[in-house]
Amino acid sequence: MTGTICSVANCKSNHAKAKKDGEIIRFFTFPRSPLTRKQWVRLCHRKNNFNPLNKRICSKHFDSNQFEDLIHAKLTNSVCSKLKKTALPTLFLPNKTEKVNSERNKRYEVRQRKEIVSIF
Ligand SMILES: [Zn+2]
Prior knowledge:
The chain is mainly alpha-helical. The protein has one domain (15-119). It has helices at 15-21, 34-43, 70-76, 98-119, and strands spanning 27-29, 56-58. It has a two-stranded antiparallel ribbon. Bound molecules: zinc ion. Zinc ion binds at residues 6, 8, 11, 13, 57-58, 60-61. GO terms for molecular function: DNA binding; zinc ion binding. Keywords: DNA-binding, Metal-binding, Zinc, Zinc-finger. It holds the Pfam family THAP. InterPro entries: THAP1/10 (IPR026516), THAP_Znf (IPR006612), THAP_Znf_sf (IPR038441).
């Protein structure tokens, strides 16, 4: 899939360049849930409204805790490729606001607890 580019406003990730540089970047399609999809669109901080259909966001924007297969990936020494249904891009975003940060911290706590449960 050459020509795949990231939808986040200030992100220069693209599939061809990553391949050339030997970077492992995955591109994720927008979620099916309308609510989560709206949040993704908002977090892209693009000036114009864009249609997220056929658009992608690269894996640089997702914290490792946002992946469903983090433990599996660690065990098999591979790359996470499955996002949680509720995953939101939180890293390397333009104009990061306080609101996003506090929301993220709250979620982070919940995630931590969930992970402890799932490990044992
Ligand atoms: Zn990106």
